[in-house]
Design the sequence.
């Protein structure tokens, strides 16, 4: 497929006049709202109903999770900087910010792995109590989304390095960004509900 | 046709940096509030408001919903509103608001 044909396929518009892939991503994000809504309500309904410990206030480390939350927030900044760079065909900056976003995502995931490991060592497993079940399910599902996002970002980075990602593919980066920012906004909600409203 | 294409102007890099700084500051304020005993009675509404502000900033500026087509806005806000309503309904059903309930 020639580059022109590839760019044309990239920018395919639906009957609404909107790019079909972007339309699909927003519809997917809408469905994700429902998914995370169901997990959040499960967590909230079970909150404070565990009859055996360990309990949230014994385990949750607010300063630590604040740092990882800040890292994820800043990854949203690097994501929009990557998009802006790709749109102006500054691929050197584009690659740098894409890689930085993926690395910040990995730092967040590392923090989550550390937290999960710590909780297990403290005696909280998936089946220990209602808090454990709902906490691991909710934050684990979010972590899985972050993991997928990191893989996606690394794929874009490799494409950029091999010269297959240019400003003509800016929509691809924008769609990736939509997914990444959604993962971020979900964490904004989870940080408040799980960690601050203990 | 209004918003017939997605080729809208996005925010500038400077705007992105300002939004990121505000997000960082709000997060710091959230954590500070958490440790102030005097604010415990209003902790829940305060934190939910700050969280909603962060949510709106990311969705509006970083996801470009402020600048993009209304169709995208509908695709996001519609399901989000349904999810929030279901959450509120379930909290009421299970008596989380303190009004009895107790379906558990």
Sequence:
């Amino acid at each position: 497929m020639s580059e022109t044909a590839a760019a044309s396929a990239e920018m395919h518009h639906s009957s609404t006049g909107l790019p079909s892939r972007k339309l699909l991503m927003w519809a997917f994000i809408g469905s994700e709202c429902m998914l995370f809504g169901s997990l959040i309500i499960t967590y909230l309904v079970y909150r404070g109903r565990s009859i055996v410990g360990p309990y949230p206030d014994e385990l949750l480390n607010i300063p630590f999770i604040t740092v990882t939350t800040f890292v994820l927030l800043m990854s949203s900044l690097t994501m929009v900087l990557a998009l802006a760079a790709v749109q102006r065909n500054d691929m050197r900056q584009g690659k740098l910010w894409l890689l930085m976003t993926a690395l910040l995502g990995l730092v967040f995931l590392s923090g989550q792995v550390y937290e999960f490991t710590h909780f297990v060592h403290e005696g909280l497993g998936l089946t220990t109590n209602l808090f454990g079940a709902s906490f691991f399910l909710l934050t684990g599902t979010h972590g899985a989304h972050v993991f997928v996002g990191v893989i996606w970002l690394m794929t874009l980075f490799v494409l950029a390095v091999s010269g297959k990602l240019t400003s003509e593919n800016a929509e691809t980066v924008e769609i990736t960004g939509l997914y990444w920012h959604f993962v971020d906004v979900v964490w904004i909600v989870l940080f408040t509900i799980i960690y601050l409203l203990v | 046709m209004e918003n017939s294409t997605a080729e809208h102007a996005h925010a500038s890099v400077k705007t992105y940096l300002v939004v990121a700084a505000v997000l960082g500051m709000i997060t710091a304020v959230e954590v500070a509030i958490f440790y102030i005993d005097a604010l415990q009675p209003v902790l829940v509404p305060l934190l939910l408001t700050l969280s909603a502000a962060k949510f709106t900033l990311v969705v509006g500026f970083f996801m470009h919903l402020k600048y993009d087509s209304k169709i995208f806005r509908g695709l996001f806000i519609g399901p989000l509103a349904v999810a929030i309503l279901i959450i509120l309904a379930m909290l009421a059903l299970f008596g989380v608001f303190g009004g009895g309930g107790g379906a558990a």
Notes: Helices of chain B lie at 13-35, 43-62, 70-93. The radius of gyration of chain B is 18 Å. The mean pLDDT of chain B is 86. Chain B touches chain A through 50 residues (CB under 8 Å).
